[in-house]
Amino acid sequence: MNNCIVIIPTYNEIENVESIIRAVLSQHKPFHVLIIDDNSPDHTADKVVMLQSEFNGRLFLEKREKKAGLGTAYVHGFKWALQNKYDFIFEMDADFSHNPQDLEKLYEACHFGDADLAIGSRYVTGVNVVNWPLSRVLLSYFASVYVRMITGMKIHDATAGFVCYKRAALEAINLDRIKFVGYAFQIEMKYRTFCNKFAISEVPIIFTDRTRGQSKMSNSIIIEAVFGVIMLRLKKLVNSL
């Protein structure tokens, strides 16, 4: 059985889903793909079903009843991946913000390197972001600075959504206690990994903003991240994380 699964949450990604699936499954390493679709009105899930016969045994679909947030989608995917005995579990966006060719870099950092969590980092070697407005770059960059100050994690890209976990790192986290959905979800997963004393490594990537489809960013996601980091730190201080 293949030991690598790439989890891709989708909501109204009909313009991207076939292309991203083909790109991931065409890599030299034979990855598997799990799509977590939140009942997209544009029938994203139907397109995945059409492709499953072509990629039999490599492409999987979990369709949820309604849109319930990025964090819960990934938690659903993590549980599925652990139940199905995968050893390396990846997070990846559907919109080509993350280059499928970088998947092997993350895998190598975990399989051949010392990482229990490998992060595809936009900021570990400067600012490697394409097509974002300056305001968005500054927001993302200084969010990670803020996270480092509050949590003590030496991570340059705490909000990154392109990562690889070793199975053991996810098994050590109580996934039922993960409640955040956006930036804060990405921070919380990294912080829980850090608090469990697993090794975290950053792999430099170039992040390219989507060219098709709609961004899911909102003010509520930003607010959740700002206050969520403080809440995580306080929970850690009183041993309730």
TrEMBL record:
Similarity-based family: Belongs to the glycosyltransferase 2 family.
Name listed for the protein in its UniProt record: Dolichyl-phosphate beta-D-mannosyltransferase
CC terms in the record's Gene Ontology section: membrane
Species name: Flavobacterium gilvum
GO molecular function (one): dolichyl-phosphate beta-D-mannosyltransferase activity
Domain Glycosyltransferase 2-like: 6-172
Keyword list, A-Z: Glycosyltransferase, Transferase
Key word Hydrolase present: no
Keyword Glycosyltransferase recorded: yes
Pfam family, one: Glycos_transf_2
GO biological process: one example: glycolipid biosynthetic process
